[in-house]
Design the sequence.
């Protein structure tokens, strides 16, 4: 690890200001992604801003009847919260399908949203990677691509976003709340939060430099039955090949988002009209512009079959 | 260098550390508590599992400075030869290890896993999110998936944990 200086932030706006004052600084929350990457010198921040003491660890009801989840709420606490289990089951299920108990006890809501890709070439500092080193090229294109994206990728990057939680947040229309160094706040819909790689795969979210996440809000409950089905190479402690987050209503209508297929949770609202007709027309519409490689073409079929299993269970 | 004070196994310990020092390295290299092991140093094996403020975490993926004033329990704090924690005794009785390298992490994780079930935390295999989670072999296998055992002592580990869970407290 490279040397760094360390401070404990005293308020969200001060954390944001400290990040502006110290170019290259990073906030540290659970540290489970950042420290891993710092050990590998993929992240080399000269300064860390510890945001654990900010008291952003509460889950509160909102005036509209939804929930406001503090940025520092741990993944375990969020999954186990009675209101989340009862009204937002897809979120509990997605969290519990990710990582391990030890990691979920540390991992935070904001840190989970901002975790970086698991592309093997991003992790191998001997390889070119536009995300790690802008302009260096992409070793994944033409390489081993089994785990990589099938849709929304670019000539510059074909990585996926690894979060399970974010896929459930997308299906629930969550909103990310932030504060900037000057104290101004904004609300970013989850659909606009993560970016596609385009020409700038190192720019992963809508956040500006120093912008700090204070909370994620969920709209009022939408009822229905909640599902998160994750397919992976082993039954636990592995990232998704493909995952399906779904909320299904009694009349066969519902919402669906896919994980493991793109640089962000992948949801196409228009495709959801096909849900009463079964999985195939839905995934055909969601993945209509998919450009899989030879190695990962299986993900397209796997998405359809995973959704079919969810729909069968929903009819159950 | 920064001064860090931790309450480790009921004793307040202060050390001067490089900011880069992980909690695991602080325990092993600076406090001579070598029970916690370093397997992967990347959150992938569980050998470094300790409890901080009663929660199990990987001590390799957190910095010691982030835990100023926190209460840390390591395998040494659970029990010692002659005065074993029930989970340590059950691992011995059921042969819950071969080489023993993963064992401190396994035991800390086991104790915390039972606490999590008691506190009503669901798992990936809990069928009904609104029901009280139960101690079953399936639940324990999922809840213990963050601790890898290269010797494959898994089935005996599950037996040991079930015995502790079923014995009157
Ligand atoms: C072995 C292993 C297996 C895993 N398996 C899975 C899995 O199956 N599914 C899954 O979804 N995840 C998995 N994870 C990833 C895990 O979920 C993430 O590491 C975790 O959620 C990150 O949260 P954190 O709080 O520790 O983030 P940190 O490491 O503290 O931070 C991550 C990033 O977010 C930034 N940040 C943190 N908080 C804020 C804030 N409030 N505002 C702005 N920026 C902020 C940091 O600066 C940093 O850049 C796995 C991790 C490991 C190590
Ligand atoms: S796919 Fe993206 S993350 Fe992977 S090597 Fe290419 S640029 Fe880097
Ligand atoms: S040494 Fe910490 S998880 Fe392997
Ligand atoms: S007993 Fe050898 S690794 Fe588990």
Sequence:
């Amino acid at each position: 690890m490279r040397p760094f200086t360390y401070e404990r932030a005293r308020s969200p706006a001060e954390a944001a200001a400290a990040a502006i004052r110290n170019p290259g600084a990073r906030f540290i929350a659970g540290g489970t992604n950042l420290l891993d990457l710092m050990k590998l010198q993929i992240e080399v921040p000269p300064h860390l801003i510890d945001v654990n003491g900010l008291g952003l660890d509460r889950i509160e009801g909102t005036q509209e009847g939804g929930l406001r989840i503090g940025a520092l709420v741990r993944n375990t606490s969020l999954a186990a919260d009675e209101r989340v289990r009862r009204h937002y089951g897809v979120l509990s299920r997605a969290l519990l399908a990710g990582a391990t108990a030890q990691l979920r006890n540390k991992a935070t809501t904001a840190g989970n949203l901002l975790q970086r890709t698991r592309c093997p070439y991003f992790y191998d500092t001997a390889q070119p990677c536009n995300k790690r080193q802008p302009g260096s090229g992409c070793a994944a294109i033409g390489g081993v691509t089994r785990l990589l994206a099938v849709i929304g990728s670019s000539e510059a990057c074909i990585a996926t976003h690894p979060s399970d939680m974010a896929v459930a947040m997308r299906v629930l229309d969550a909103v990310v709340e932030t504060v900037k160094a000057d104290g101004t706040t904004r609300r970013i819909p989850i659909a606009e939060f993560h970016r596609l790689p385009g020409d700038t795969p190192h720019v992963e979210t809508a956040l500006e430099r120093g912008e700090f996440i204070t909370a994620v809000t969920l709209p009022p409950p939408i009822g229905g039955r909640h599902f998160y089905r994750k397919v992976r190479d082993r039954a636990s402690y592995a990232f998704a090949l493909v995952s399906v987050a779904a909320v299904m209503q009694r009349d066969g209508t519902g919402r669906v988002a896919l994980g493991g297929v793109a640089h962000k949770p992948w949801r196409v609202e228009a495709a959801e009209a096909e849900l009463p007709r079964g999985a195939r027309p839905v995934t055909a519409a969601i993945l209509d512009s998919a450009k899989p490689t030879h190695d990962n073409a299986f993900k397209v079929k796997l998405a359809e079959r995973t959704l079919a299993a969810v729909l069968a269970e929903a009819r159950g | 260098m920064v001064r860090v004070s931790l309450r480790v196994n009921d004793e307040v310990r202060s050390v001067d550390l490089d900011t880069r020092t992980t909690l695991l390295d602080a325990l092993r290299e600076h406090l001579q508590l070598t029970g916690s092991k370093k397997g992967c140093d990347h959150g992938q094996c569980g050998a470094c599992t300790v409890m901080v403020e009663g929660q199990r975490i990987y001590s390799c993926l957190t910095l010691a400075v982030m835990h100023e004033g926190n209460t840390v329990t390591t395998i040494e704090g659970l029990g010692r030869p002659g005065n074993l924690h029930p989970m340590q005794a059950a691992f011995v009785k059921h042969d819950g290890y071969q080489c023993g390298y993963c064992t401190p992490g396994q035991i800390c994780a086991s104790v915390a896993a039972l606490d999590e079930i008691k506190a009503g935390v669901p798992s990936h295999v809990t069928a009904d999110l609104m029901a009280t989670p139960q101690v079953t072999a399936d639940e324990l296998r999922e809840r213990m998936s963050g601790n890898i055992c290269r010797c494959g002592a898994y089935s005996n580990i599950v037996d040991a944990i079930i015995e502790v869970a079923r014995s009157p407290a």
